[in-house]
Amino acid sequence: MTAGRHDQGGPGEGETSRRDLRSDFGGVAGNLALLAALPIGTAYLYFCARFNGGRLLPGPEADLEALAQSLIPSWETAAVYLAWLAFQALLQAFAPGPTVEGTPLEDGTRLRYRMNGRSSLLISAVAVGAGAASGLLPLRWIYDHFGELISVVTLFSYGFALFLLIYGRAGEPARKTRGVIVDYFLGAARHPRIPPVTGFDLKVFFEARPGLIGWVLVVCSFAAVQIERHGSLSSAMAVVCTLQLAYVLDYFWHEPAILTTLDVQHEKFGWMLLFGDLVWVPMTYSLQAHYLIDHAPELPIWAAALCVSLGLVGMTLFRWSNLQKHRFRSDPKGLRIWGKPAEFIETRHGNRLLVSGFWGWSRHSNYLGDWLLGLAWSLPCGFQSLLPYFYPIYFAGLLIHRERRDHQRCAAKYGEDWDRYCRRVRWRIVPGLY
C-alpha cells in the first residue's frame, strides 16, 4: 500500500534495480485480499468517525443502516468527481510551471515532466472558493456526500486500473508481465503516458493532483462544518488543518523531488498506487479533522504550540533529509552537507551510498520525520479515542515494511558493500532505538 507521500527511498545514488513485488504483498492471494480489504477499511474508518461516536470499535451509537445508506453512490457525486478529475488534468497540462527532466531510464533517456503543482493548487483554491462563495458548491458538500464520494472514487479506481492493465500490457513485452491479477494490482507499466513517451503522464498526475489537493478540500470542508455546527473553529481543528495544509504546500513547493521517489522511479502503476492516491490519502488522512467536528477539545496555548512545534520538527527532518538525498543524486561528488564534502561509500556496481548528514544518523531519517508529522496532527484530538491515532499506528507499520523491503533489495544488490554500509550507519530509522 502506498504511503501517498513522496518517499525518497534508501541512501543510494542512481539506484535502478527493480523489485519483484509479488512476495511483498502475498502474491495473487494477497493482492486479491487487499483489493477487497482496503476499500472496506476505508469505509470502516468513515463509519467510526461518522456513525460510531468517534470510537474505533462498534459501540452503542453505531448506526449501520445510516452507513449503508450514505455509501450508495449518486449520479450527482459521480459527475462532480469526474469534473474534478477533468479540471485537475487540464491544470496539469496547461497551468504555468517549469518543465524538468526525470532520472535516467534503463536506456539512458529521460522523460520530461511539467512541474506546475503550485499554480494548480492556487487556481484550484480560487475556483473552489468562488464556487463556495456563490453557493454553487458549498464547502460542506464534501462532508454531506462523503460516503458517496468514497464509493464513487473506489469504483473509479477499480475501473481505471483495468484500463491501466490493458494499456500497460499493450506497451510492455510479454516476458515482463506477471499474471493478470498481479499486473492489475501492482501495474503493468512503469511510466504509462498518453501518447507514450511524450504524452500525459498518468502516474505522476494521479500521484498528487486529484487526491492530494482533494485532501486539502476535505479537511477544509470538515472545518467549515464544525464552524456551522458549533459556531467557531476549535483550536485543535485549527492545528490539524494548519499542519496538513503546510504538508501539502511543502510538497508542491518541492515538487520536482517526486521524480526521485520509489513510486515514480521503480513502482509500476496499477490499482495499489491508484487507490492509495485517490481514495486512501484524502479519505483516511483527513480522519483527524473528521473526528474533531464533534469532538473539539480546546487546547491550551502550550499544547497547541507543542503540537505545531513537533510537526515543524518532523516536516523539517523529512524535507531536509530528502533534499540532501535529492541533491546527492544530482551531484554526488560536488555536494557539501553541513559545510563539508558529502561522504559516501562507493560500491563495486559504481553506485554511491550516502553516509553524511541525516543519512549518517540512520538509513531512513526521512521516515522518522514523516512519522513525527503524522503524530503531531493526531495529538490535538486528545486521548478519548484511539481512532485519531490510526494514521501514526498504520504509518509506523508501513514505514517499517518499506524499510525492510529496501534493506532486502539493497542487500541483494550490493552484497558485502551493503554490509559495510550497515556497519557505518547502524540504525534503520530511529537513531539509538531502531
Description:
This protein has 434 residues and is mostly helical. The protein has one domain (12-424). It contains 17 helices and 9 strands. It has helices spanning 27-51, 64-70, 75-94, 117-134, 140-144, 146-170, 180-186, 202-230, 235-253, 262-265, 271-284, 287-292, 301-330, 358-361, 365-376, 390-414, 416-424; strands at residues 12-13, 99-101, 112-114, 193-194, 200-201, 336-337, 340-341, 344-346, 352-354. The strands form 4 sheets. The chain has a 3-stranded antiparallel beta sheet with strand order 1-9-8, sandwiched between helices. Strands 2-3 form a two-stranded antiparallel sheet. A two-stranded antiparallel ribbon has the order 4-5. Strand 6 and strand 7 form a beta hairpin. Helix 6 runs antiparallel to helix 11 (271-284) and helix 16 (390-414) crosses helix 17 (416-424). The chain is globular and about 60 Å long. The two termini are 22 Å apart.
Write the layout of secondary structure elements.
Blueprint (H helix, E strand, L loop, with lengths): L11 E2 L13 H25 L12 H7 L4 H20 L4 E3 L10 E3 L2 H18 L5 H5 L1 H25 L9 H7 L6 E2 L5 E2 H29 L4 H19 L8 H4 L5 H14 L2 H6 L8 H30 L5 E2 L2 E2 L2 E3 L5 E3 L3 H4 L3 H12 L13 H25 L1 H9 L10
Antiparallel strand pairs: 1-9, 2-3, 4-5, 6-7, 8-9
